[in-house]
Amino acid sequence: MSEIDIKRISYLAKLKLPHEKEEFYANSLKDIIKWVDNLKMIDTSETEPLHNVTEKTTSIRNDEIIKINSVDDVLSNAPDRAQNFFKVPKVVE
Amino acid sequence: MSNNWEMVIGLEVHAQLNTSSKLFSSSPNQFGSEPNENVNFIDSGMPGMLPVMNFACIEMAIKTGFALNFNINKYSVFERKNYFYPDLPQGYQISQFEFPILTEGFINIDNPDNQKKIRIERAHLEQDAGKSIHDIDPKFSFIDLNRVGTPLLEIVSYPDLSSAEEVVSYMSSLRQVLMYIDVCDGNMQEGSLRADVNLSVRHKGGELGTRCEIKNLNSFKFIRQAIEYEFKRQIDVIESGGKIEQNTMLFDTSTGETRAMRSKEFSHDYRYFPDPDLLPVNLTQDLIDKVKTLVGELPQAKLDKFIKDYNVDKDIAKIITAEKQNAILFEKMISETDVKPKFIAAWLVGDIFAFIKENNLEVSSLNEKTKEITDLLKLVSDDVISNKAGKEILPRVLNGQGNPSDIVKELGLEQVSDSGELEKIIDESLIGEEENISKFQGGSDRVLGYFVGKCLKATKGKGNPKLINKILLERLKK
Question: Rounded to an integer, what is the distance from CA B123 to the centroid of its chain?
């Protein structure tokens, strides 16, 4: 099993881990992966990949506009708004 | 800079599909609305919402498949591409990754002296993201989620392009096809069609270099500028002993320069996995066959038809086929009159397009007036009125100020095409011109123009110039 880069994983998951907890979480993740790795014992070379357990295919709808809510509904959970925009800390690439 | 460098370019083109509603939600897919007007709980990424596929997007993808010579895959899968950004409220973009709906297509582009086949690796359906606005407030970004969930078809070419010209030609051919099959409005200014350019440099015929990706170019001008700048930049780096780092670049439209996006602490890892909210897409042969009948005539086929069947010059035919609405207008006019298509084509790309441009009109706005236009062109091609008179009254006809024959009568513009009458006028105008007549007979062609002018003046400009020319020549050669 490859080493766990806990800094990178927490960055990707947008989680801030206290420095002293990093090793704890790295080890927990290792255990989880070790457990999932048991699946590798099964020979799947002859098996088609499965993307969904049902035999069904995706539902479709017709291309019609249905409005079910107002702008205020959508903004009602926003931590902050400015006119009808969501207002968030500056993020610039 | 030595000039044995060449550029190798692949393009990722994002085409917004012109559906009524979004890819997975019933919100309007509409540009220019008030902020967050077109956002429902699916678009805003509320928990527990279930995305449901818009059938029109599947149809449009299949149409594109036929138009760009793709394999249309009966089995495709939507996956989650995970990353955090404020204008992506779900925390992931629903896209296709391992099993895209279209693979291995191509399009032919026109180079100055040949056609080049550009291979297209894949095209897949995905959601567009929202828009962040950074310049209203110094401390905050404002987020408008209207664009979230707009259906995109991302079309990924192989690195078969080797100049800015080829890239522009490829992009405009794609745009033309997508507009013909009515899947994209092609409006680059509004972002309906935008490109990411992957560019690397190498010594001619040598090994591929490291590529940089320039994001989100939405005009032909910017594409050209960005490519030219980035090409020089990479060569400069290498020639001064440096190495190209694989980077994502932004193009600054105010300086015309590219710059690396703020370097990331860690490289991206999108952790794609099949979206558990969406089942795989299975296309039946029946559906594929049915959509095939909706593709319609493609630009290349129309161009060939205009040149071969209608005898239109290639350059003019290209102008007419450049946009679908031009071709529709042209074909409607042809179907309504016996005036030669070549004649109609010349008027269309000349005075009629000039009128449209001057008055800032849509070409399609003339579809209602084709009867009047072709009536006018018939009067000109039958020599009832002169070319000049036709040009004069065209604006009135296009403005809907009466039908052409009434206007012609009202202004008294009918030409004199009665040869008896013209012969009389010509004979009179030759009286006392012995000197000029002998000059003509001595080989001075310029004198002919003088006589034509004189006769036209005698008819107050209404004499049929072709006929005058013909009779004059007969008289003068005697």
Answer: 20
User: Which of B41, B54, B261 is closest, CB to CB, to A63?
Assistant: B54
Does ipTM exceed 0.90?
no
Q: Are residues B65 and B187 in the same domain?
A: yes
**Counted domains in chain B:** 3
Considering the entire predicted model, what is its pTM?
A: 0.85
Indicate the residue of B139, B140, B274 with minimum beta-carbon distance to A51: B274
Are B120 and B234 in the same domain?
yes
Question: Which member of B46, B250, B280 has the closest CB to residue A58?
Answer: B280
Instruction: Of B104, B217, B243, B244, give the one whose Cα is nearest residue B160.
Output: B104
Q: How far apart are the first and last CA of chain A?
A: 35
Same domain, B267 and B344: no
- B38, B49, B42, B11: which is closest to B25 by C-alpha? B42
Give Cα A47 to chain centroid, integer Å: 27
Assess contact for B193 and B15: CB atoms under 8 A. Answer: yes
Examine the domain organization and report whether B218 and B358 are in the same domain: no
What range defines the domain where residue B454 resides?
A: 419-477
Q: Is residue B294 part of a domain?
A: no
Other beta carbons less than 10 A from residue B325's beta carbon? 14
User: Residue B447 belongs to a domain with what CATH number?
Assistant: 1.10.10.410
Residues B15, B114, single domain; the answer is: yes
The verdict on a CB contact (< 8 Å) between A93 and B250 is: yes
Q: Within A43-93, where are the H helices?
A: 71-75
CB contact under 8 A, A65 and B40: no
Residue B308 lies in a domain: yes
Q: Tens digit of pLDDT for each residue in A46-79?
A: 988 877 787 788 889 999 999 999 999 999 989 9
pLDDT band at B258 (very low <50, low <70, confident <90, very high): very high
Q: Do A63 and B52 touch (CB under 8 A)?
A: no
Residue B216: C-alpha distances to residues B15, B64, B223, B241, B253 (Å)? 12, 22, 9, 30, 11
The DSSP output letter for B101 is S
Is B284 found in the same domain as B154? yes
Q: What is d(CA B416, CA B419) in angstroms, rounded to the nearest whole number?
A: 8
Tokens 């392009």, located at residue: B161
The alpha-carbon radius of gyration of chain B (Å, integer) is: 30
Tell which of B367, B387, B411 closes a domain.
B411
DSSP assignment of B119-173? EEEEEEEEE---EEE-SS-SSEEEEE-TTTT-EEEEEEE-S-B-SHHHHHHHHHH
- What is the bridge-based pairing of β-strands B273-274 and B281-282? unpaired
Residues B326 and B263 in one domain: no
User: Residue B128: inside a domain, yes or no?
Assistant: yes
What pairing do the DSSP bridges indicate for beta strands B248-252 and B212-217?
Answer: parallel
Residue B293 covered by a domain? no
Q: Are residues B278 and B350 in the same domain?
A: no
pLDDT tens digits along B417-442: 777 888 888 888 888 888 888 888 88
Q: What number of other Cβ atoms are within 10 A of residue B14's Cβ?
A: 20
